[in-house]
Amino acid sequence: MNEGFGSRLRSALDRHGPLCVGIDPHAALLDSWGLPQSAEGVRAFGLAVVDAAAGRVAAIKPQVAFFERFGSAGFAALEDVLAAARSAKLLTIADAKRGDIGTTMAGYAQAWLEPGAPLEADALTISPYLGGGSLAEAITQALPVGKGVFVLAATSNPDGASVQQARTDVPGETVALRVTRDVTALDVAGTALGSVGLVVGATIDRSAFALDDDTLRTVPLLAPGFGAQGATPADLRARFGTLAGNVLASESRSILSAGPDGIAATIEERAARYQEVMGG
């Protein structure tokens, strides 16, 4: 039996703190780094981030879209970045936000979470808005092979609130809470950190989504919104309270804008600030 993703994430968080570095090689960043607008450019960008992050943070999170825009060559570049991260013993979260039903969702799980697959990652972001139950195929394939998922629940983009805060037919239940209940029921972590996580923005009011601390007690949380979107390391405990130890604090532009010569020092400085907040 493979060690569960939640267990490996717990170890990485305890060792390195909560910082997760996003790998988002969008056009402006490639230009500022002096890299070409090509698959080779995103490959070089991603490998440089992996090299800078290795040994300093718990995880990296490549944004798949910025590789996918270069077609098959872009996916080949992403394969190289993910392989390098595995070799560096970094946890990898493929930010692909896949969401479908049945065998199609199973196909996504095989592409991104099957051991030995070219695009193998440790976890995958997935979208529940065809219904939480639609994700069962992916989740039930992921867990036995030690992989994880992060399900979009309460995202930091303003447009998400109109859907995620909407009320279901159960009194007091939001769509975000229904999603949380549906997907975490597929995990059996007990009192340990689970392998089915949620994407919960660092800049949102969780109470508006009806996501309280008790509901999320054993759930890994991937939290965008730190860095360029406004949340700071000091906000980690203020925003997440007793859940702070379960949080991967995702930063991208605030770190990547340091450029190839400054990124390692920036990662080290940001990681130290998070560890100080967490008492490490």
Question: What are the main properties of this structure?
Answer:
TIM Barrel; single chain; alpha/beta; 8 strands; 12 helices; eight-stranded parallel β-barrel; 280 residues; 41% helix
Walkthrough of the structure:
The structure is a single chain. By secondary structure, the chain is of the alpha/beta class. The chain has one domain (5-150, 223-277): Aldolase class I (TIM Barrel, Alpha-Beta Barrel). Helices cover 41% and strands 15% of the residues. The chain has 12 helices and 8 strands. It has helices at residues 5-16, 27-32, 39-53, 65-68, 71-87, 102-113, 136-142, 161-164, 175-184, 235-240, 253-256, 259-277, and strands at residues 19-23, 59-62, 91-98, 123-126, 148-154, 196-200, 221-223, 247-251. Strands 1-2-3-4-5-6-7-8 form an 8-stranded parallel beta barrel, surrounded by 7 helices. Strand 4, helix 7 and strand 5 form a beta-alpha-beta unit. Helix 3 (39-53) runs parallel beside helix 5 (71-87), helix 3 (39-53) packs across helix 12 (259-277) and helix 6 (102-113) packs parallel to helix 7 (136-142). The two termini are 31 Å apart. The mean pLDDT is 95.
Described by strand count, sense and barrel closure, the largest sheet is: 8 strands, parallel, barrel
* Helix-and-strand structural type: alpha/beta
Number of strands: 8
**Shape summary:** globular
Instruction: Return the CATH topology.
Output: TIM Barrel
Shape-level CATH architecture: Alpha-Beta Barrel
Blueprint of the fold:
Blueprint: H1 5-16, E1 19-23, H2 27-32, H3 39-53, E2 59-62, H4 65-68, H5 71-87, E3 91-98, H6 102-113, E4 123-126, H7 136-142, E5 148-154, H8 161-164, H9 175-184, E6 196-200, E7 221-223, H10 235-240, E8 247-251, H11 253-256, H12 259-277
Parallel strand pairs: 1-2, 1-8, 2-3, 3-4, 4-5, 5-6, 6-7, 7-8
